[in-house]
Automatic annotation (TrEMBL), chain A:
Coiled coil: none
Any one GO MF annotation of this record: DNA binding
PANTHER family attached to this UniProt entry: BLR3430 PROTEIN
Domain ChsH2 rubredoxin-like zinc ribbon: 16-51
Species this protein is from: Parazoarcus communis
UniProt xrefs under InterPro entries: ChsH2_C, ChsH2_Znr, NA-bd_OB-fold, Thioester_dehydratase-like
Domain of life the protein comes from: Bacteria
The ChsH2 C-terminal OB-fold domain, residue ranges: 54-118
Protein name as annotated: DNA-binding protein
Pfam family, one: zf-ChsH2
Alphabetical keyword list: DNA-binding
Keyword Transcription regulation: no
Lineage: Bacteria, Pseudomonadati, Pseudomonadota, Betaproteobacteria, Rhodocyclales
């Protein structure tokens, strides 16, 4: 299924294209050492501009999820799982993604997951699969 | 009034909204769809509201609207202040309308500020929506894929649409699932929002869905995005709603007992984001804290509540955010439906809300709150009371009004 792709900007490129080298890249502040998402040119915690993408482990856990059954577009393969995954690097560090590679009804909150990249054009979408 | 402290900071040493009152309301027909244009519906609502306040168009010196003319293919808001001012021949000292702000009540909040700032005496606030007509033509008009051509560069949707979050329901479902997980909330508890709204809608001739609804009907309704079902979603309609805000001293001259804005909430102390906020508190918590910090009234003083139900979970989050029940307890609070029924301790969404009454999107709740406070609600009138709360929005969007009938 063809996905709606995001605009790539100087700020967002590391997140969307880190997968090209197999790495999930999350912005981190050098001044206060905190990660943050979505990526931006300033740290929301301390206002330092010393921010840059950093590779993270690619591990995570499911914070919440939903099985979408509605075909919002005719070419959409349903059902599929939309989730919020929290990364182990920092409490609260999280983003919306998909859980793939297992039956939707098998997904659980707190399930350990690991990143996998789905390439479409110049975007490597960070989706997650169960971490066995 | 002594300065009020919130989160350790002194704030709110001037509660200006107390000098603002609702003096009249109006609403067009509500239908799915209606053979009337957005402007026709807008005029129906606005002219009725002006007359209800005992005013003429010459008295109206301000116009407010959320989200203004905002029509990216889905008929979400086909008429804004710019179009209305000339059409209705108004002469205004201030007008405003735009999407960014504290949710669907932002027009009321902005209008109240314009009055308090001394710019206006009578502000016409309106909200028009023709989503039902639009969906007759394109069933998927609301899908996010239709909203951006090419790459998604929207400030927030760009983080969601690539993962096929193509409707807000997916985000609401994430909140719901987390609420179920953290607090043990059940589908049967959530169902009570839909069941309550449908029971109330049966007594509202304008409501879209009026046939009785049972728990079995709810539980067997189509799953859209787990755990949210079709009956957890509001119903599109064509409608326009208008209210007149007046300076409190000017409102006293009108035919209706003024309904004062006792306090407003418009806060956001978290990122403007659907996934970076507290998933089970959302902006509702910030809004509620602000509103209660601006009044001596307490949640126990509230006689009825009109709480946004674009999706049923949002009503639950508003119950908690406005401290009408403890955090995490909304499931148990609504269980069985007795507390929130028309004859219960806290009647909610007394016209059927948006789930059954129709997605008038914001001002419909204010219209209903005033109808109840004025004793004009006919068959659906609840026990007499003087204090009502209205809240609208979901996720990072949120605003609230505490209304007191003089």
């Amino acid at each position: 299924m063809t996905r709606k792709l995001p605009a790539i900007t100087a700020d967002s490129a590391p997140f969307w294209q880190g997968g090209e080298s197999g790495q999930l890249q999350i912005h981190k502040c050098a001044a206060c050492n905190r990660y943050f998402h979505p990526p931006a040119p300033i740290c929301p915690s301390c206002c330092s501009r010393e921010v840059a993408p950093q590779p993270v482990s690619g591990k995570g856990k499911v914070l919440s999820f939903t099985i979408n059954h509605q075909a919002w577009r005719p070419d959409l393969d349903v059902p599929y799982v939309v989730a919020i995954v929290e990364l182990p690097e920092q409490t609260g560090l999280r983003f919306v993604t998909n859980i793939v590679g297992l039956p939707p009804e098998a997904v659980r909150i707190d399930m350990p997951v690991r990143v996998r990249f789905e390439q479409q054009e110049d975007v490597w979408l960070p989706v997650f699969e169960k971490d066995e | 009034m002594a300065p009020r402290v919130r989160e350790g900071r002194v704030m709110f040493d001037r509660i200006f909204e107390k000098d603002v009152a609702i003096s009249g309301v109006g609403q067009s027909a509500v239908g799915r769809p209606l053979a009337r244009s957005g402007m026709q519906l807008t005029l129906d609502a606005c002219l009725e509201a002006i007359a209800d306040a005992g005013l003429t168009r010459d008295d109206i010196d301000g116009v407010a609207c959320w989200p203004g003319d905002n029509n990216n293919g889905d008929a979400f808001s086909p008429v804004g202040p710019n179009a209305l001012i000339g059409t209705l021949g108004l002469k205004v000292n201030w007008y405003g309308g735009g999407y960014e702000g504290p949710g669907p009540l932002a027009g009321v909040i902005n209008g109240a500020m314009a009055i308090a700032a001394g710019l206006c005496r009578h502000v016409l606030v309106f909200r028009t929506i023709t989503e039902a007509s639009r969906r007759q033509v394109d069933k998927n008009a609301g899908a996010l894929t239709n909203k951006t051509v090419g790459r998604d560069s929207s400030f927030f949707w760009q983080w969601y649409t690539p993962f096929n979050v193509l409707s807000a329901i997916n985000l609401m479902a994430l909140y719901t699932q987390r609420h179920f997980h953290e607090y043990g909330t059940t589908p049967e508890q959530l169902a009570q929002i839909a069941l309550t709204c449908r029971a109330n809608a049966a007594l509202n001739p304008k409501a879209i869905y009026r046939t009785p609804l049972s728990m079995d009907d709810y539980l067997s309704s189509r799953m859209i995005s787990t755990p949210l079902r079709l009956l957890d979603c509001d119903v599109h309609c064509d409608a326009s709603t208008a209210i007149i805000l007046s300076r409190a001293d000017a409102a006293k001259d009108g035919p209706n007992r003024p309904i004062r804005i006792e306090a407003m909430g418009a806060a956001l102390h978290q990122p403007w984001s659907w996934d970076q906020i507290d998933l089970t508190a959302t902006a509702a918590r910030d809004v509620g804290e602000m509103m209660w910090a601006r009044t001596d009234l307490k949640p126990s003083d509230v006689g009825s509540a009109q709480l946004y139900d674009g999706f049923s979970i949002l009503t639950m989050l508003w119950l908690e955010g406005l401290k009408l029940c403890p955090r995490g307890e909304s499931g148990r609070y609504v269980e069985g439906g007795q507390r929130i029924a028309r004859n219960g301790e806290l009647p909610i969404n007394t016209n059927g809300g948006q789930l059954s009454g129709g997605r008038t999107h914001g001002l419909g709740y204010v219209h209903e709150a005033c109808s109840q406070l004025w004793g004009r609600a006919g068959d659906r009138q609840v026990k007499p009371h003087n204090v009502s709360v209205v809240a609208a929005g979901g996720g990072p969007l949120g605003g609230s009004l505490l209304l007191v009938r003089e």
